[in-house]
Amino acid sequence: MTALRELGKRLYKGRWGYFFILPNFAIFTIFFLVPVVWSMVLSLLDYQWWGTEFVGLRNYAQVFNDRIFWKAVVNTAYYTFGVVPLWLGKALLIAALIFPFRNSIQTFFKAAFYLPHVTSAVIISMIWLWIYNPPFGLLNYLIRFLGIEQVAWLGNTRTAMPALIFMQVVMGGGSSIVLLSAAMNGIPTYLYEAAELDGARPAQVFFRVTLPLLRPTLLYLVVTGTINSFQVFTNVYLMTQGGPQFSTTTIVYMIYDTAFKQFQFGPASAMAMVLFALTAVLALVQFRWLGQEVEY
Amino acid sequence: MLLDDKRTRPKHYVSLVFLLVAASAAIIPLYWMLVTAVQQPTLTVTFPPEWFPSKPTWINFERFLARPGVLRWTTNSLFVALLVTGIQIMTSAMAGYAFAKKRFPGSNFLFYLYIASMMVPGQVTLVPLFMVMNSFGLQDTYPGLILPAIAGPFGVFLMKQFISTLPTELIEAAIIDGCGEVQTFGRIILPLAKPGLAVLGIFTFMGQWNEFLWPLIITNSANMRTLPVGLALLQEELPMQYGLLMAGATYAAVPMIVIFFMFQRYFLKGITVGALKG
Known about the structure:
The structure holds two protein chains of two kinds.
Chain A: H1 2-13, H2 15-42, E1 45-48, E2 51-54, H3 58-64, H4 67-98, H5 103-114, H6 121-132, H7 138-143, H8 160-171, H9 174-185, H10 189-197, H11 202-213, H12 215-230, H13 234-239, H14 251-260, H15 265-290
Antiparallel strand pairs in A: 1-2
Helix pairs in contact in A: 3-15, 4-8, 4-9, 4-12, 5-9, 12-15, 14-15
Chain B: H1 9-38, H2 59-65, H3 70-101, H4 107-117, H5 126-135, H6 142-146, H7 154-164, H8 168-176, H9 181-192, H10 194-210, H11 213-218, H12 227-237, H13 242-262, H14 264-274
């Protein structure tokens, strides 16, 4: 009894806390938490408009036996491992290069590299559809100077995925640059001075001092970059519709296609769970790998 | 600064040139969108392409705006983005305040729930949300577009981080002076949290203005489409009308670009604040 009364007291004392989180938490529960749980349940059901039946792991079996799904997993991995290292490398290089400049010049470049991020993926895709266009696009015009015949960049199983990756790397990286250069500016100057006194060359300073101290930021960027790349959809939807011959079908594109073109909600939910699991595993591995504490 | 040393200065010109080239690679596609949008339709596909249109024209924009639905898509996008931003700011500020300054049983657990859910891919909720909206008859309606968009955990996290930095003494002083809880929040916390609210507001608005997948799924009548969905369908319908399509893309991109240049400080700050995860 006293324990119950004690709890009641504490709940009463915290009543304003509950009052303030209530509106957000109610929406969050109904439109986020419940759907996540429901998605897990749905992946175990055969959901049809005439009736619903519990089928255990049959949806998973169907998904894992689908060769196109495996292709989508491989394509998603291809895209992710293409995009993330390249754009991180780009961001690191740019951040290191703008670091010695005055603040105003730094801000100018940060803004320039960030600019493509404020336009939607739909617009970026439309622009690049035009740039990649086989007879008239800008890219085919430019490569003529290199003596290369025109290429149907998006219409060809070998070039379609690299074309999607290339576009993402050219347009992306802006927010990573902003973050990395903030982190670089946060490194105490005396560390550089000490390194210079010890006779370190600039390259050594970068690899032995700057890079290790940037590890928390790099970890964050690798994890969020991977999660974002795993969810690539809009570019695929607009530019290739997963083709040619499923060479750009990604997991999310397949979830969309299965759920909202074929209305197979059970298998689509099973795929979503696989995406969830893959994301979680990758994030954990990256935390382990890059996550050791950094001390100044 | 150490690296401003005279010995290293000549190298700066090399890196400056390199930076300019790299930056133009990201800017040229946007410039090309503009050029194609104001180019004469007959000159769009000529070789060599004109980097500076010799006879710029508004004809593509006129033709784009004359298409049925364009104004409706614009008002839909604007209405949804503004409403989502307003609700998101208000509820996130309240919840962030509670997590930052209030102690109540379960607060740690609930906050971890928010943090953990930031790791969940949004696509996981797609099918169940669609079914919920369908069963409530909210498919192809404004509530259907708006409700799932205000449920994201990011705003709460951001506001908690921001409000944590405000001195607790101010709140105590307000209570002693006889302010009620709601007054304290409205008169003390909200004004002090303005920079944080601005960051959250700008990012929410941008995310919503550019959102594609959910509006694509939940709307099916031409009247309910948002601008990105309308543009994507236009792209499917008229894939060869480059001038018209680039005029549409410009039309949708320019508001965000203008907002970016107006509030650049908040954008660049917001990226850093948002990344300071626990």
